[in-house]
Amino acid sequence: MQASAQAQPNIALVKYWGKQDLRHNLPATGSISITLDAPRTHTRVNFSASQERDQFLLNGKPEPAMLNRVSACLDNLRALADCPLRARVESDNDFPTGAGLASSASGFAALVVAGASALGLNLDTQQLADLARRASGSAARSLLGGFVELLLPAADGPSTPVRSLRAAHEWPLAVAIAITSSRTKSVGSTEGMERSRLTSPYYPAWVSSAEDDLAYARQAISDRDFLSLARVSEFSCLKMHALAMSSEPGLLYFNGATVECLHRIRTLRTQGVPVFFTVDAGPQVKAVCLPEALEQVGQALADVPGVQKIIRCGLGAGARLDKE
Ligand code: PMV
Predict the structure, then answer these.
(1) Which of 64, 294, 306, 317 is the most buried (most CB within 10 A)?
(2) Residue-range definition of the domain harbouring residue 264
(3) What is the pLDDT of residue 49?
């Protein structure tokens, strides 16, 4: 009863920040993302009668801080399979974990795909996406490749539809990720989102303006209109960080190098380079560009003081089982 799967992070262009229902982990707004082709999470799940309790190893080391979330995700799978067995889960990330690189997205996407297969469950993408979303809202989007939208649940239940807006090969954008710190983030996304919901005076405006951003981004993706996608993505990103900063106490995910990178990217764009930025709940900067600009963008960001490393990638496929 074992299986292994792989998944890559996704990066939200229209962000999700805030939950309408904590128990089911339901986002308050829809979101649109791109799934990357690298870096990658590999996860092996092994259910066995000799396993007394669930075990979770990240990059070869026990990771007690994540064990409860992993176990809760396995519980949902066990309930569907009517199986009481405990599991050993080994997950390897080839990038910094918990620093705003969406490691929970690729991690839980790979976990549900491997876990369902190990239990012999034959689930469709939507069922897998719901299981992933309950563990981490953004993880549902890593089930699919390319441009992905996570929609709000219909009125009659806690299922959030996930759908492909475009395959990766139909509009092969590239991404340069500027790593400006490898430290784990101080305030995780769930805690940060709740703080913003409860304390930011801007929260109602954030929620009510999301549908306009989603509609704009859908159109830009449908038209392959890079500058329109740049405009709505930077707008959503800065709005999310304004919301985080306006929480009490304020959440400041940027460091100095993050801000310098944002200026550098805007300068490149005024010089005609097709690139825009987005930043999640951590200090790394994701520069999304047309493939022909990737070298220039990567070099420009590598030159920003405080940038430690550049990860270059393209768009990729959704979570999948490893071929044995
Ligand atoms: O799904 P979580 O809990 O990892 O939260 C994701 C939050 C952001 O990455 C900042 C935005 C998003 O939509 O991915």
Answers:
(1) 294
(2) 174-314
(3) 97
Ligand 1 within 6 A of CB of 106:
no
**Per-residue confidence (pLDDT) for residue 324, from 0 to 100:** 65
Instruction: Say if residue 281 is in the same domain as residue 140.
Output: no
Q: Is 43 in the pocket of ligand 1 (CB under 6 A)?
A: no
Q: How confident is the model at residue 112 (pLDDT cuts 50, 70, 90)?
A: very high
pLDDT at 101: 66
Residue 107 Cβ inside 6 Å of ligand 1? The answer reads no
Given a cut of 60, is residue 57 above it in pLDDT?
A: yes
**How far, in Å, from the CA of 30 to the mean position of ligand 1?**
11
Helix (H, G, I), strand (E, B), or coil: what is residue 247? coil
Q: How many domains are contained in the chain?
A: 2
Domain harbouring 10, CATH code: 3.30.230.10
Residue 84 CB neighbour total at 10 angstroms: 8
Element (H, E) at 294: helix 294-302
Q: Which atom of ligand 1 is nearest to the CA of 281?
A: 10
Amino acid code (one letter) for 181 = S
State the distance from the centre of ligand 1 to the C-alpha of 76, rounded, in angstroms.
21
CA of 280, closest atom in ligand 1:
10
Cis peptide before 249 (omega within 30 of 0): yes
Nearest CA to ligand 1 atom 9: 280
Question: Averaged over 286-313, what is the pLDDT?
Answer: 97
Burial class (CB in 10 A: 0-12, 13-18, 19+), 303: exposed
In this predicted model, what pLDDT tens digit does every residue of 58-102 receive, in sequence order? 999 999 989 999 999 999 999 999 999 999 999 998 875 555 565
Of 10, 11, 16, 194, best ligand 1 pocket probe by most atoms within 8 Å of the beta carbon = 16
Q: Whole-angstrom Cα distance, residue 17 to residue 316? A: 24
Please give the Cα distance from 235 to 221 (Å, whole number).
16
